[in-house]
Design a protein that fits this description.
mainly alpha
């Protein structure tokens, strides 16, 4: 028996969506880190060109800035990952629910040879517009 709070009802599909989203967020974070590295490297080169010694406060300041940006970007990535994964889990649940329900509905028909009550899905699920079409087709087959 499935729990009311089990959102992974079609794991292969749902996890593929979440993984795709995670990779997209990770690529975005990588691009931010890369641009930050280029930006920081540019300022280091400027300091070297004007003859600042390696231990100069300017270089220490740049290092502090770089480390702060990495820290806050990493925190932002984690928050974005968690929120977007939760969002994708809920959305995928609303997409997968009708598919799982339809598969079960037609499995019952194939096993019993009888068309049960009209097909229904949860009100918040996607594909509400298909329900009437499915029920009309099944009514016609009766």
């Amino acid at each position: 028996m499935r729990s009311k709070f089990n959102f992974l009802i079609y794991p292969k599909f749902q996890l593929a969506l979440i993984l795709t989203n995670t990779l997209t967020v990770a690529i975005n974070l990588f691009l931010v880190f890369f641009q930050n590295w280029k930006f920081n490297h540019h300022f280091v080169e400027m300091g070297e060109r004007i003859g600042l010694v390696p231990g100069h406060a300017y270089f220490k300041f740049l290092e502090v800035q770089r480390n702060e940006l990495i820290l806050y970007s990493s925190i932002g990535f984690l928050i974005t990952f968690l929120v977007s994964s939760l969002f994708f889990l809920v959305i995928s649940h609303r997409l997968a629910g009708p598919i799982v329900r339809l598969r079960s509905y037609f499995k019952d028909i194939s096993e019993t040879g009888k068309v049960p009550e009209p097909f229904q899905i949860r009100q918040q699920d996607f594909f509400q517009d298909f329900i009437q079409t499915i029920n009309q087709a099944l009514k016609r087959l009766k």
